[in-house]
Amino acid sequence: MKYTYEFFKGPFNTLMIKLSEKISLVGEVLENDIQNGDGLFWISRIDKVLNKELDIIELGGNSCDLEIQRDYTKITHRYIEDENNSCMIETFELKELILIWVAENRKI
Fold first, then answer.
1. Is a pLDDT exceeding 80 seen at residue 23?
2. Which of 30, 49, 58, 59 would be a feasible disulfide site paired with 101, CB 3.0-4.6 Å?
């Protein structure tokens, strides 16, 4: 894993994650879009791109839109209206963070 992360409890005892500012929007995807789900929907779409079944796929969640390509994924937050409303992360690293998030959620 290229990125450091730290889990903590948020309001109402919800799982939250702290990531570097550069990829902080990944936390929004995990906390607001995947939440306490199993992540299979997201992982299956990412795998289609990583396995070259698709060149690109666009997904929308509760708060963020993802443009998934083989090398990088662009995450854009729909409700943030400044220059910090998007970030890029390596697609493989995003998949790893989703798997880590799901595993941590299972512990709760």
1. yes
2. 30
At residue 68, φ and ψ (nearest 5 deg) are -95, 120
Residue 90 to residue 93: CA distance in whole angstroms: 5
SS3 (DSSP) at 38: coil
Domain boundaries, the chain: 5-107
What is the reported pTM?
0.93
CB-based contact 29:19 (threshold 8 Å): no
Distance CA 30, CA 14 (A): 12
Write the burial class of residue 89 (CB in 10 Å: 0-12 exposed, 13-18 middle, 19+ buried): buried
Helix, strand, or coil (residue 60): strand
What whole-number distance in Å separates Cα of residue 6 and Cα of residue 22? Answer: 15
Dihedral sign, Cα of residue 106, residue 2, residue 34, residue 70: negative
